[in-house]
Amino acid sequence: MKKRNTVLILGIASIAVLVSVQVYIIIGIWKQQNELFSVRYTNRSREAFDYIRSSYSTDGFDTVRFLLNDFSAKAYQSIKSAPTPEEFSNTRQYIFNYFRNVVDKEQDLSGLLSSYFSMRGMASNFRYRIVVNNLELIGTDTLVIFRSENFINRRPGERRRMQPSSEISSSEVFINFFRMEGDHYRMMIDFYIDFSDKQKYILKETAATLGLSTASILLVGIMFLVTFRNLREEKRLSNLKTDFINNMTHELKTPLATITVAGKTLELPVVRANDEKILETAKMIGKQSVHLNQLINMILEISMWERTQFQLDKKKVDIEEFLSDVVSTFKAGGGNGASISQKYSLRGTQADIDVVYFTTLLNNLLSNAVKYSVKEPVISIEGEADEGRIAISISDNGIGISKVDQKHIFDKFYRASTGNIHKFKGLGLGLYYVRKIAEAHGGDVSVSSRPGKGSTFTITIPRC
Ligand code: ADP
After folding, report:
1. Full-prediction pTM beyond 0.70?
2. What is the CATH number of domain 314-462?
């Protein structure tokens, strides 16, 4: 039990480690792909701008430049003539909004970029965002209308100027910053492109790794389950074998002890002088030897079946006659006071059976019906046949068998009453023997039972 729990804990722990490692790797790959995407798309987008400029001799901002040039001269005048600080601040806000709107609405990049992206076979689903970072109006002096925090921070270092000046979303890439100048203004803008298919694209790139990881986790899980089930099965079999050895020792010791005691009794002069006592003791020795012999034969026979096929010596018999004979012999052999009733509707049905084996099969079922009973045993045997098969059932009013045990009682060595092993003696071989013999005759055996009420075993074999 301890070993099984350790295996279970170890197995679950290693699967957990494996899953964590895989998740870690996948996150790493995802991040890598993410960065790769950004680098690739940033470069391509920059190339797009160069391409547009050289091929169409425009950067898409011609209208913007024209409008702003016109507006900036007037804007400078109006802010200069602002009478109050409040008016100054309002005018400044208005000018900034105007610039921002013109830059946003009047540039002409959408179509140009789109055609370049599709030409290069890139994700064509995109939106762009333009952020104004710095705006100055120039007249007799320079007036700073707006200056973003990031712009101030990045100003001194040329290299840092390539960094985005505002927060970017996960699917967005920072393309570049631009400087735009007119007669009366100077402006810096950042350009971002949002590729909404980015996640889809990365998923496609990582799909193979994801699939392999999932498959390897599944495989390890399945391997673990199979190993664990095998271990459990091995443990069950080893328990069964231990129980069997204990039971067998017990079963063999009882007749041996009786024979030993009987031998010692025969040595006593009082007994030797009494013919009747000698005969009684000799009969007892004989009976116990037969029992011992039967036990040994059964064990030997079963171990032989493991290696060789059944050798049946079949002959045609009238099944009703055969059943009546077996039952009579069982009764005569002391059916332990069981009341046995028989009901056959077989009308001369014949079957091809090995009489010796089939007798053992029936005797096993009958003696179990007697053995597993706590009150006076009432047994009923029924037989019926249809065109192809004969069904023989043996019902008792014994202790019954639980649903769980019903699944296993035909297995070798299995005993339902393991906890109470010496109350009902046995080796757990009787029903295994029954199943083997029934199957060797082309038939099978089944059980239906209710604990506390009784059991019915049904043998089905082909008829002639
Ligand atoms: P054994 O009787 O030697 O234990 P068997 O193979 O004949 O082995 O039976 C297997 C188990 O099935 C028994 O241990 C017993 O628990 C259960 N069993 C068999 N026959 C009956 C019956 N007629 N009524 C109740 N339990 C039974």
Report:
1. no
2. 3.30.565.10
